[in-house]
């Protein structure tokens, strides 16, 4: 929801369990990679000891199947 609301130009194509498949403009890949990671780091599960889920990003200019 945070990505959808703050970055409408990012297309979330699929969500499966704990992953998202997104599409961003190729010319701004580095910008969006860092912006999404920064945004995700600010999200925590509000337990007594807050839970912040680790994040990783893979990318490809060919297809999601070629992500490295």
Report on the architecture of this protein.
This protein is α+β, with helices and mostly antiparallel strands and 68 residues long. 26% of the residues lie in helices and 16% in strands. It has a two-stranded antiparallel ribbon with strand order 1-2. The radius of gyration is 13 Å and the shape is globular.
What keyword list fits this structure?
68 residues, alpha+beta, two-stranded antiparallel sheet, globular
What is shown here, in short?
The chain is of the alpha+beta class and 68 residues long.
Strand order of the largest sheet: 1-2
Beta-strand proportion = 15-25%
Radius of gyration: 13 Å
Q: What structural class is derived from the secondary structure elements? A: alpha+beta
Described by strand count, sense and barrel closure, the largest sheet is: 2 strands, antiparallel
Average residue pLDDT: 86
In total, the number of strands is: 2
What is the secondary structure topology, with strand pairs?
Elements (H helix, E strand, L loop, with lengths): L1 H5 L4 E6 L2 E5 L5 H13 L27
Antiparallel strand pairs: 1-2
């Amino acid at each position: 929801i945070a990505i959808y609301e703050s970055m409408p130009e990012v297309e979330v194509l699929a969500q499966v369990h704990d992953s998202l498949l997104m599409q961003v403009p190729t010319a701004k890949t580095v910008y969006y990679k860092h912006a999404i990671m920064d945004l995700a780091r600010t999200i925590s599960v509000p337990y007594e000891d807050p839970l912040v889920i680790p994040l990783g990003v893979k990318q490809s200019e060919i297809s999601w199947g070629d992500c490295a």
